[in-house]
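User: I'm designing a mutation panel for Phosphatidic acid phosphatase type 2/haloperoxidase domain-containing protein and want to avoid disrupting the core. Could you give me a predicted structure to guide residue selection? Please restate the sequence first so the numbering is unambiguous.

Assistant: Good idea. Sequence first, for numbering, then the predicted structure tokens:
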Amino acid sequence: MAPMSLSELTRNRARTGGRRPSATPTLPVAALWTGAVVCAVAVFAVYAFFVRTVLGQQLDEAALTSAQRLHTADAPAAVWLQTLPWFLITGVLIALAVLIAAVRRRWAVLIAIVVTVAGAVLSTQLLKYAVFERPDLGLDTLTLNSLPSGHTTAAGAAAAALLLAVPREWRPVFGVAGAAFTALVAGSTLVSYWHRPADVVSAVAVVGAWTLAATALTDPRTARRRRRGGAGSAVRERAVAHQARIAGLVLLGVATVALCVSGLLYTGVIPDAIAGTGGNLWAGLLFETAAASAVFAGLTLALGRRSVLE
């Protein structure tokens, strides 16, 4: 191939600004650990307010009472949700994530999946039965602690495992799908009277903490040992990061709107004449949706960046 002329080199340099196309920078490990700590703190903050205070218990119980008053567990949609084998589904999803990582020979990803699932499920059981307790604050409510939700933890961990396992190009799609799946399972626990909203929110935060911690433990800094790609590789990485930003911002938008409407319903700013008799139920469902959307927005934004977990 004939060498490029001086004019061609000049035009190419002008188009690139005199620089080689740069790849999307790797997310610092400190950012992953910071996110994990924030999620962990959120678990204890949710417990401290919604379980240890009278106002928190009142708000949390209002959604469950609303569901019971409306007999939502007998509604066709709730009956359908109750008949689904959630633990079997989550088990299949986790097995699929492991299989994808093994077939792709992404051993760091496989380690991250194992740490995420095992850590989230085991810590949820530990927190629920050995660390947290539900004090009797004089309210008409069950004193048995149910925070965090085991169902939601399993579903969220399965969704996070798949998010880790798939190629980075697919993570924006699986991030949105994971948030939807987790919110669906979370909603089923409320309409079936299994869990209060705070149980779900804390469970989602547990999943977020372990996913980010597992990602940090696999050391994304090893990305510096990857082969250097050309301009096409840099363009691809920027495109993937851009798609992850879009998906993450969409989920953050959903979380913000859901949280705001939930707060308005809880505080009575939206009157019963508009909200209907199930206003507190919708407040709880939207609160759960906000938590699932926010956590998976963070995971999508983090895992969409260039790292060892590819």
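For picking mutation sites, this is relevant: Confidence is low (pLDDT under 50) at residues 227-231. The first helix runs from residue 6 to 15.
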